[in-house]
């Protein structure tokens, strides 16, 4: 018998398990190493409501009973990130957690306020954290029971206003540093560039003309200064 996950030939004296429902290898035999790895390095960690102990989801272990399922998306042959899907719960918010970034403090306040609001209004929710190949990044998704999605979404909006969620300062220095954003804002005043997303949108609009247009505007700025 071979492990469905790694292909290891499972011997008579080896530990073996059956992959949980809602996993990539659901119902198939897996070796002890793959099972233990999924427990120790889960792809997804789920906190239901006020529960302090999380449930984990991976390729062979799913402690949520199939409420949530994990899938890995490759960005290249070696790197990628885990995504989550659910038939029972609706996604009402998604955020990127970046280690050591200034947005951490705001998202911590947002998370605390969401739990308070949902507990107060009787919303059944789950906080879902999905890791990536980048040790400094993971995704934070907020799910609620599907029949509660509308009031839950309105409470998300309320919490975001309270914690200043959309302040551009939380979305800077992720890809472009402060100096780069400042220079782009000066060169393209009509684009109101304040955060990384604005810079990406500019590059998307200009395409292959991005660099020539930047160089042209820089030369014009130099001519204006010298004049």
Write up what this structure looks like.
This protein has helices spanning 32-40, 103-120, 149-163, 178-187, 196-206, 210-226, and strands spanning 16-18, 29-31, 44-48, 55-57, 69-74, 80-85, 89-98, 125-131, 137-145. The protein is of the alpha+beta class and 227 residues long. The chain has 2 domains: 43-170, no CATH class; 178-226, no CATH class. The strands form 3 sheets. A 5-stranded antiparallel sheet has the order 4-3-8-9-7, covered by helices on one side. The chain has a two-stranded antiparallel ribbon with strand order 1-2. A hairpin with a 5-residue loop joins strand 8 and strand 9. Helix 2 (103-120) packs across helix 3 (149-163).
Compact overview of the structure:
The protein is an alpha+beta fold.
Key descriptive features of the protein:
227 residues, five-stranded antiparallel β-sheet, alpha+beta, 6 helices, two-stranded antiparallel ribbon, 2 domains
Order of strands in the sheet with the most strands? 4-3-8-9-7
The rough form would be described as flat
* Largest sheet report: 5 strands, antiparallel
Query: From N to C, what is the helix and strand string?
Result: EEHEEEEEHEEHHHH
State the helix count.
Answer: 6
Low-confidence stretches: none
Helix content: 25-40%
Mean pLDDT: 86
| Distance from first to last alpha carbon | 80 Å
What is the gyration radius calculated from CA atoms?
A: 23 Å
The tally of structural domains comes to: 2
The structural class is alpha+beta
The total count of strands amounts to: 9
The percent range for strand residues is: 15-25%
Task: Itemize the secondary structure elements and their pairings.
Blueprint: E1 16-18, E2 29-31, H1 32-40, E3 44-48, E4 55-57, E5 69-74, E6 80-85, E7 89-98, H2 103-120, E8 125-131, E9 137-145, H3 149-163, H4 178-187, H5 196-206, H6 210-226
Antiparallel strand pairs: 1-2, 3-4, 3-8, 5-6, 7-9, 8-9
